[in-house]
Design goal:
There is one protein chain. It is built from 12 helices and no strands. Helix 6 packs across helix 8, helix 8 packs antiparallel against helix 9 and helix 8 packs parallel to helix 11. Helices cover about 55% and strands about 0% of the residues.
Length: about 240
């Protein structure tokens, strides 16, 4: 009877003894373990992902370019487009230019035919200038100068000291462009007569360079002419031709 009672007591004690709780391991750390130990450097075998945190921008902030206000100025066209336009422009054909020249010649001939050149030579510079200004073409003026030559007008006596440099240059231009081509003797006589008017040395200084060049070229056509070569040489010296 005594042995049976002891066994029952030991069994009861073992049933009521509490089971010890095991210590927590690293796998069972609480979720907020990182907040408990802040600023803990990572271990050497752990890799730090640097791509997730962008590098700080130390450069100066970009300046946004300002746009100039629009204006009404049209920008120039590119050179290529300008060349293309020039190539596309029609060029006058020789036939067209000849046709225009023929029309111009016909118009001048018609104008000269309708102009009535006086048949009486002038007796004074005033009368000469009045007629000269109403003759619109060199051809009509050349006929007027030829009239004075044929009537043996004393040119220095007509102009005396009233001939102005502008009118003198216009007379020389008509002699070069018209009269010397149709009647060389009359033109050379005019050159000689003009060199005898009063104040010629002063007036000839105002003669245009263009007229001097054309006059020298015209007179050079007579250098091989035995009868006119000496006259043309004297005229060239008086008019100070190049």
């Amino acid at each position: 009877t005594t042995t049976t009672t002891t066994t029952t007591v030991s069994t009861t004690k073992s049933a009521t003894t509490p089971t010890p709780t095991p210590a927590p391991t690293s796998a069972t750390k609480p979720a907020n373990a990182s907040t408990i130990a802040p600023n803990v450097p990572p271990k050497s075998n752990e890799k730090v992902d640097k791509t997730l945190s962008p590098a700080p921008n130390t450069s100066s902030p970009a300046v946004t370019p300002t746009t100039a206000p629009a204006s009404n100025v049209v920008p120039p066209e590119p050179v290529i487009s300008q060349l293309a336009k020039k190539e596309s422009e029609p060029t006058p054909t020789p036939a067209a230019s000849t046709w225009v020249s023929d029309i111009t010649s016909q118009a001048v001939e018609h104008l000269n035919a309708t102009i009535k050149v006086p048949t009486t030579p002038p007796t004074s510079a005033y009368e000469f200038n009045r007629v000269w200004t109403i003759l619109p073409t060199n051809s009509a003026r050349s006929q007027y100068l030829l009239l004075m030559h044929e009537k043996s007008v004393n040119i220095p006596q007509v102009f005396k000291s009233s001939l102005q440099p502008e009118l003198f240059d216009a007379i020389v231009d008509t002699l070069i462009e018209e009269l010397i081509k149709t009647n060389p003797h009359a033109a050379l006589n005019w050159f000689v007569s003009l060199s005898s008017i009063p104040r010629f040395d002063v007036i000839v200084r105002f003669m245009s360079a263009d007229n001097k060049q054309k006059m020298a070229a015209s007179l050079s056509n007579f250098k091989d002419h035995s009868a006119l070569s000496q006259i043309t040489l004297s005229i060239a010296n008086k008019y100070r031709l190049p």
